[in-house]
Amino acid sequence: MTDTAILVSGRSPSGTSSAAGDPHAARVPGADDPRAIVLVEGMSDRIALEALGARLGRDLVADRVAILPTGGVHAIGRFLTRFGALGSNVTLAGLYDEGEEHVVRRGLEGAGLGADLSRAAMEQLGFYVCSADLEDELVRALGPTRMEQVIDAEGELRSFRTFQKQVAKRGLDHEEQLWRFMWNRKIRYATLLADALDLACVPRPLACVLAHV
Predict the structure, then answer these.
(1) pLDDT in tens, 35-53
(2) pTM of the model
(3) CA–CA gap between residue 86 and residue 69 (Å, rounded)
């Protein structure tokens, strides 16, 4: 196993698990000697990107692209420091939530990948912001009608209607209601939402990060 693969799998050379590693990382497609690594926050982000990549005709495993959940944005600095040290051998990229931009910027700068980085400069490094997060991007790209069709196909439209009637949810617009409904269902719906997308309307950050690698 190469040094890069050891880092991606979250295991040390002795075979013990790394504290910074993702518990699912041993099953990350493309993790064996990757050419490129896309850092995302959680499993649902990884699942959605893999599904979208397949729909766009990308064989990420054959391309040696590993989509790696960091287990939370505050861990990204450790991953950037590790993988940044590999230099040109590995292409780094990532997605992050709009509210966490300062954390990602600090991580990139701390890993020696730039200074006083603007959002445009972060994009040049391969890191793209989702507004507000990946699920929000998918909800807005699909729109309320298509979203409700996906939810209905899963037998959860009645649950969504009940959710909409909650006092705290009544004043929200339809798209925000749908986004919040996804919060506890992210992994379940990740592939479903990616598969439901019109490929002419792929959210910009998702399209850009896949194009970067």
Answers:
(1) 999 999 999 999 999 999 9
(2) 0.85
(3) 19
